[in-house]
Amino acid sequence: MSVFAQSPVVEIYLIKEKATIDTTEGPDAFRVSKSDLPKEPFIRDSDILFYNDTTFELTFSAAAAERISALKPDLRIGIPFVLTIDRDPILCGYFTNFVSSFASGANSIPVIKSTVHRIQKGIPEYHFEKNIKERRNDKRLIQAMKSSGRLK
User: Fold this and answer.
1) How would CATH label the architecture of 10-147?
2) pTM of the predicted model as reported, rounded to 2 decimal places
């Protein structure tokens, strides 16, 4: 057994189907449990380089950015994802089509060609501000990023 504490593992999983609709989180929100997660993450802990808790921007490795930009979300709602810490779901949302004009009452990450992606609070951003629970500054997420030296 190591005497050093291991940093929490932050990962992003793609969800094939929304597990449970949860309108208390937002008009288009859903929630998942550990048992809903696929075996393998879409974005591994090592692919997440930084998190800015002011702008809510995640900086990914080039390989992860390529995987994100290869996603093809439809225009209506997008591809469900969940950000986890040690496989515990923290924030659910959608990878969305950057050119979509459809509104969404859930967290979203627009699919763009970049290593930096902002977690938005709805589309258009903040249109549903009072209806979407703020999870982007979850204390477990902040602590996980801080303890691993990835908090900007």
Assistant:
1) 2-Layer Sandwich (3.30)
2) 0.92
